[in-house]
Amino acid sequence: MSAIQEPERAARLARAILSDVMLYHEDAVRQGIEADDLFDRLAGELEEARVYFESRVEADVARASNAWNRALVDVLVFRSRHVRSRIW
Amino acid sequence: MSDDHYELLELSRDATREEVERAYRMAMATWSEDSLAAYSVAADDELAALRERVEQAYRVLVDVEARTAYDEGLGGPAPAPVEEPELLFDEEPEPETAAELPAEIDDFEDLSGPDEGRWSGAALRRTRLARGLELGQITEITKVNPLYLRCIEEERFEALPAAVYVRGFVAAYARCLGLDAARVTSDYAERLQSARPSASALRRPQARR
Fold first, then answer.
1. CA distance linking residue B131 with residue B122, whole number of Å
2. Interchain proximity A16–B150, CB inside 8 Å
3. pTM tops 0.80
């Protein structure tokens, strides 16, 4: 399996995976934002998603680009900004 | 309707591949069945013919060899060399056989397990993710309801509409991923028919002998 070596592709992959997590667990994401326990509530799903991401991306690229963590914020958190929460 | 692929997609002769991709997506969105822009200017069959024509132009212009031959056929001055920026899709479109599939797709097929090289909802999803495409982006391009796209990926056949519509959705989805729509649709049809035996309409009509 040829792993992704370009940071931009890694970032796109991370966003696509996390967009799916959000889509498939819409209620849990909303509840997690509301209760400020998003990462605990979705721990299993996010771990599974991260493992998939890391299986597709060169380890150095994943680490240096910080693509996964950026996508967590850009997709799961930012796209939930309309949800009422004490986070904001 | 123009016979010139460039005119049809409103492109200059030296358009880059990226510009061709963009023009294609815009044209397909403009002439989609539910496009407000197209609603009052063309009937459904005319829209289908337009989309077919756009598809035809796109296939030629994204293929370097086909495009070179087409340009030569047009005559006139040779266009500037086509720039090859980062591709929208990671692999060449429309692999014809399993042996020709790009490595990345082979990996997905390996992961598909029981599919054994056949296109399934799960394989479509993995391919989409590998291209870094979100389901919403597929919807923007294909105009297929994201709920249906999810059902296609999850193979929730009972939640999908009549087979003839599913066929169109799957074909649009496959083309959007740069895959061989006929092959993907055919594979998916078998899965759908197994689950919904009455879904024979999804299959292509057999050629007359």
1. 14
2. no
3. no
Q: Do A16 and B104 touch (CB under 8 A)?
A: no
- Tell me the per-residue pLDDT of A9-60, one tens digit each, with 9 for 90 and over: 999 999 999 999 999 999 999 999 999 999 999 999 999 999 999 999 999 9
B146 part of contact set with chain A, CB < 8 Å: yes
- Nearest alpha carbon to residue A75 among B132, B141, B153: B132
First-residue to last-residue Cα distance in chain B: 34
- Which is nearest to B170 in space by CA: B158, B186, B193, B194? B186
For B41-55, the three-class secondary structure string (H helix, E strand, C coil) is: CCCHHHHHHHHHHHH
B12 beta partners: none
A70/B contact by beta carbon, under 8 A: no
Tokens 């771990």, residue located: A47
ipTM of the modeled complex: 0.84
Pick from B86, B129, B136: which is nearest to A13 by CB?
A: B129
Contact by Cβ (8 Å): A13, B129: yes
d(CA B47, CA B34): 10
Beta carbons of B90 and A9 less than 8 Å apart: yes
Contact (CB<8Å) B132/A20: no
CA R_g for chain A = 13
Q: Which two tokens stand for residue B68?
A: 């070179």
